[in-house]
Amino acid sequence: MHGNTSGLKAAQLKSLSNLYRRRIEPGRVGSPELARNLAELSDDVRREVSVLIDRRGRVVSVSVADAKGAELPDRRLGETRLAGFHLLHTHPRGGGLSKGDLSTLFLKRLDAVSAIEVRDEGQPGLVHTAHLTPPGTVGEEEDWRILDPVPSFQIDSFDLGAQVSALEEEIARAQRTREAKKDRERALLVQIDQGEFDAEERLDELAELARTAGAEVVHRELVFRRNLKAGTLVGAGKLEELTSRAYHLDADLLIFGQELGPAQAREIEAATGLKILDRTQLILDIFALHAQGVESRLQVELAQLRYMKPRLLGAGAALSRIGGSAGSAAGGSIGTRGPGETKLELDRRRINDRISFLEKQLESVAVRREERRKGRARNDIPVVSIVGYTNAGKSTLLNAFTHAAEEPRRVLAENKLFATLRPTSRQGYLEGVGPVVLTDTVGFIRDLPKDLARAFRATLEEIGDADVLLHVVDAASPGADTRYEAVNRILEDLGFRDMPTVVALNKADAADPETLERERERLNGIPVSALRNIGLTELKDALADAIGQVQRQELAQREEAQVRAAEYR
User: Fold this and answer.
1) Which of 232, 209, 269 lies closest to 448, judged by CA?
2) For residue 136, pLDDT beyond 70
3) Is residue 77 helix, strand or coil?
4) Are 43 and 121 in contact, with CB atoms under 8 Å apart?
5) Which long-range contacts (CB under 8 A, 24 or more apart) does 134-142 make?
């Protein structure tokens, strides 16, 4: 028995328990006798009473609660069939099916939900019934069909079994058709607007991240909410709306633009029955998809393990106290006796061991990279680090600078976020300077997940060895100024904000002329198109001037040091 039974008399509790003995004809909503028993009990206890009936006609649970509070089975993910139960409950105050009744029907994928009106002296009145409709059904109700109410003595007139069989056949047929056509996961995106001026831009970026990860975005939702709900961020009502939309759009993935805590992700998944991802998981997945070199693969795996570790299911601290023993006679403090390590603890230990191994591997990679950097320093060749927001065109610009049109010198350049993760160096030539090394770095992004930032920090710190930074800005996409500032914040965190910098306003051929002119004046940038080789001469001249200025400053510092040394001698 489920629900709040406090205050009920022994006779009332016994009557409720006797409901488990009731059986109805399989494939029917109920029986006149069961309807009368429920109405009398509901009038006696002055509350709603619910029974859950399986397809054999057996009462499997009794609840003193409404449809939302009734004891219901958990729905399995990926299920193409219905739950296999229908809910029959009372409405002591009369009236048809409520919004909560219909929401329970849809979210729990019940065979049907029925409400019995309770009249004076516990007499059963009209019975209201609803069942689900297949995805894509055109009609007055999107998710369900409400049948005409019938008197309680006709409650067994509707053939629910035949309706359920037909519905499941239709759902299975539609599922097979969709699976034959569907080659990518279909995703719903949710970005919460808490008053940020760039909320829509963040939603656009989330859509681009999803596309890069290989998902098909079928719906985007910008939810304004000043204060977030602790468990679900957006509230139960919005989750129900999103679940309904996913049902009709055949979506199986719900992606949030905010980072979700472990408990939040589990609660949202339980409420919607959908696969749940947040922005951090999406970026980690893209990094794993595009990681090519040994170092980038190690860094991505390390970031994924750090993200995964606190999200392992289990009781955490309670389980960590369980230690192996030979029984109570073997001693041990209270709460520590048990079978030894649990699966959760074993998983955590394996993750910790793997993290330690990856960190040691990355240390050795860092040593080799440091040796290469020292080799370049001995050759006294100027270094230009190309930095910028992801998908700004850094790799395309590197290819254009070094004339690397074909393999093996050509650097991968795609219209995707984080297409390249491994820093790549190529030798180029600048008039008046001579040979230079141009290094393409990992693309930046606002609110870079901290686990990724930690993993790639050593790679990003290589930027500090450059003589000049070439900051590439995508001038053709809205929000160029916010992406420019996001890159500068990361550079400031790394301590490189004050390095000599040349700004390239890339994709100038596709940019709005007024916007391009405004950004050129504000950032003192040089309009270029790496794809069409426009403005590259002016950009090379600006880089040569910046490198020349750095070299003159270094020469002046060396001469000053020599003078001081001579004075000391």
Assistant:
1) 209
2) no
3) coil
4) yes
5) 134/167, 134/170, 134/171, 134/174, 135/171, 135/174, 135/247, 135/248, 135/250, 136/174, 136/248, 142/244, 142/248
Q: Tell me the CA end-to-end span of the chain in Å, nearest whole number.
A: 96
What is the phi-psi region of residue 555: left when phi exceeds 0, alpha when psi lies from -120 to 50, beta otherwise?
Answer: alpha
Query: Closest Cα partner for 34 from 14, 46, 52, 47?
Result: 52
What is the pLDDT averaged over residues 477-487? 87
Peptide bond into 408 cis (omega under 30): yes
Helix (H) or strand (E) holding 425: strand 424-430
Q: Rg (Cα) of the chain, in Å, rounded?
A: 33
Q: How far apart are CA 140 and CA 61, in angstroms?
A: 32
DSSP letter, residue 404: -
pLDDT of 328 > 60? The answer is: no
Six-digit token string for 133 = 């409709």
What letter represents residue 303's amino acid?
A: A
Structure tokens belonging to residue 416: 């995707």
The Cα-based distances of 143 to 146, 239, 245, 382, 410 in angstroms read 10, 15, 10, 65, 53
| pLDDT tens sequence across 65-124 | 888 888 877 655 445 578 889 999 999 989 999 988 988 888 888 999 999 999 988 899
Task: Please write down the HEC assignment for all residues of 159-222.
Answer: EHHHHHHHHHHHHHHHHHHHHHHCCCCEEEEEEEECCCCCHHHHHHHHHHHHHHHCCEEEEEEE
- Residue 410 carries which side chain, given as an amino acid letter? R
**Nearest CA among 36, 25, 67 for reference residue 50:** 67
The pLDDT assigned to 321 comes to 39
Q: Between β-strands 124-132 and 112-118, what pairing exists: parallel, antiparallel or unpaired?
A: antiparallel
User: What DSSP string describes 344-382?
Assistant: HHHHHHHHHHHHHHHHHHHHHHHHHHHHHHHHHHHHT--
Q: How confident is the model at residue 320 (pLDDT cuts 50, 70, 90)?
A: very low
**DSSP per residue, 32-72:** HHHHHHHHHHHHHHTS--EEEEETTSBEEEEEES-TTTS--
Question: Please, which residues bridge with residue 256 across strands?
Answer: 190, 278
Length of the chain equals 569
Query: What Cα–Cα distance (Å) separates residue 490 from each residue in 52, 197, 473?
Result: 56, 20, 15
**Rounded (10°) angle between helices 10-18 and 32-45:** 160
Distance, CA of 512 to CA of 478 (rounded, Å): 10
What residue type is 402 in one-letter code? T
526 neighbors 542 (Cβ within 8 angstroms): yes
- Name the nearest CA neighbour of 123 among 156, 94, 102: 94
Q: Give helix 99-107 / helix 236-249 axis angle, nearest 10°.
A: 50
Query: What's the distance, CA 104 to chain centroid?
Result: 25
DSSP-derived 3-state class of residue 565: helix
Amino acid of residue 393: G
